[in-house]
Amino acid sequence: MQQRPLGNTGRSVSALGLGTWQLGADWGEVDEADALAVLTTAADAGVTLFDTADVYGDGRSEQLIGRFLRERGAHEITVATKMGRRLPQEKANYSPENFRAWTDRSRRNLGVDTLDLVQLHCPPSSVIDDASTYDELDRLVDDGAIAAYGVSVETSAQALSAISRSGVTNVQIILNPFRLKPLDEVLPAAADAGVAIFARVPLASGLLSGRYTSQTRFAADDHRNYNRQGEAFDRGETFSGVDYEEGLAAADELARALGEGVSLPAAVLAWIAALPGVTSVIPGARTRAQAQVNAAAAELLDGGFDIDAFDAVIRDVYDRRLRAEIHPHW
User: Fold this and answer.
1) Which of 49, 244, 250, 260 gets the most CB atoms within 10 Å of its CB?
2) Residue 30: CA atoms inside 13 Å, Cβ hemisphere, count?
3) Whole-number Å distance between alpha carbons of 137 and 119
4) Under 8 Å CB-to-CB from 298, ≥6 apart: which residues?
5) Is the pTM of this model over 0.70?
6) Rounded Cα–Cα distance for residues 171 and 173 (Å)
7) Which residues have CB under 8 Å from 289's CB, separation 6+?
């Protein structure tokens, strides 16, 4: 598993990380044993980045990670959590008092004195663009509550604003074959600034897993059921904002372009991880088997897979099917 620098922190994180939204909520039920098995499988495969948030299951995801790390003992895993979604998305709520309360709660959930990395959780642009936001985050670093900070964003414009701030360690952004706009400016800007990029929703909420069909039905508490039009949060978080049926058709095209023995999810994860400027890809997993499939993409990075040829197919499918709908918005 490749390990890559995490900005200027002195830490390294794996090219393939693990997103843990699924271990908290909004993806159907995942019991505690399965959640711990996912964490174990990922760590055993060389994954050294776990991404979580204080709102994933109202802290359940953080608590499970904290338990796992205590039971595992010595480890090299960096935990990147997120804050800012516990209250309505209004600028006034991003106050020094709330920053402190949120980070203190995550420290308790994870069982640590200092959080490795805290990311603002897709805040409004007014928060990202305000210099005082970063002054408050710097104070948390100075106080030892957090070691580093970054920003998770919805749009490329927000990413570029965050990258321009000298204290930002990383930017987390949706990036996959259905979401190519970050390749235009965000990845080059991040590379120039020494800012790490975490590529989230890499499999477009499962559309790029190759497992779903028109007949697939999602549980009532799964956001792929209740948020397709952005009813609960940004529409881009669900299937990357792509219409479900159109996404299935596009995914089928990509799958048919692959050689025998190469799965679509592994190919997609390897392609993202190989993009210049990407530090880590953070697919989620609800089961041990899914975690194994995700980690297997690391093997494709080491050769035996024509990433350039797959890149050409991805860009062709995007231009024909998705650009007009997706590119203007994110």
Assistant:
1) 49
2) 26
3) 10
4) 1, 2, 14, 15, 16, 45, 46, 270, 273
5) yes
6) 6
7) none
